[in-house]
Amino acid sequence: MVVCMLRCIISLVKISLLLGVLVYGIHFWLSNKDYVFDAGKIAKISEKYAGYEAEAAFRDILKELEDLYPGHILPSRDHQWIFVNAGGWMGSMMVVHASLTEYVLFFGTAIDTAGHSGRYWANISDTLITGQYLQWKEGEMKSTVYGPGDTIYHGMGEVTSLNFKADTWMVEYGRGFIPSTLPFALADTVFGTTDFVTAFYTVRVYAKALWMEGSLFVGEFRDYLKGNL
Ligand SMILES: *[C@@H]1O[C@H](CO)[C@@H](O)[C@H](O)[C@H]1NC(C)=O
Q1: The pLDDT of residue 20
Q2: Which residue among 28, 29, 156, 177 has the greatest number of ligand 1 atoms within 8 angstroms of its CB, and so is best to mutate?
Q3: Which residue spans traverse the membrane (predicted)?
Q4: Confidence band of 1 (pLDDT split at 50, 70, 90)
Q5: What pLDDT is attached to residue 134?
Q6: Whose CA is nearest to atom 4 of ligand 1?
């Protein structure tokens, strides 16, 4: 009995140490790696289209992104509006870039929706093209109202209550440990709506984006080796 308990405690300590090293390692990587995009630049591109008709705005923003970040934007055959059920709200997203540490997507809703923002190991910024976004921060007693052209920052570890008005559309950039955001993004789908088709679309587009970034990385690495050997 005592031996067993001792073994259990040792196992727990080992697992905790391993987790600690893993979290620290990812944190170190996130703090020191180079990024393809930056929040300021994505906001600057998007805010020019504030008040435009959302569909036309997204088309033009996509063109700008393809010119600025060749090879990092998913091809048009992979552009798909996918429903997102999370934190009690329901929206729709179109992923245009995703890697282990960054993503860019178009997001919004055609009807009013509200709920919990989620707490992420990522910094997330949203630039509004149309509509209205109410954000109620933890610990406060008032909400803030954002409109077209505004950029809303959601810091790592923060949590808010949010309300998107009908026909609110935005460009979203996330930077952090992106796989950690998936459980929240899929929780309501897997355990609430049980819409496994939507869950499949979500995982599929992320897998395609990861594959694209991975291939690009391998190609660059090979070129680097050729140039240096
Ligand atoms: C998230 O934002 C905070 C505050 O600006 C910054 O210190 C941190 O480095 C950011 N994290 C990443 C992964 O960019």
Answers
A1: 94
A2: 156
A3: 12-30
A4: low
A5: 98
A6: 155
Residue 30 alpha carbon, nearest atom of ligand 1: 13
Q: Which CATH superfamily is domain 39-228 in?
A: Jelly Rolls (2.60.120.10)
Query: What mean pLDDT is predicted for residues 103-114?
Result: 98
Cβ of 176 closer than 6 Å to ligand 1, yes or no, is yes
- Mean pLDDT (the chain) is 95
Domain spans of the chain, in order of start: 39-228
Does residue 123 line the site of ligand 1, with CB under 6 A?
yes
pLDDT (mean) for 144-153: 98
Q: How far is the CA of 137 from the centre of ligand 1 (A)?
A: 18
For the CA of 177, the nearest atom of ligand 1 = 13
Q: Is the CB of 30 under 6 A from ligand 1?
A: yes
* Residue ID of nearest Cα to ligand 1 atom 13: 176
Percent with pLDDT over 90 in the chain: 91
Q: What is the pTM of this model?
A: 0.92
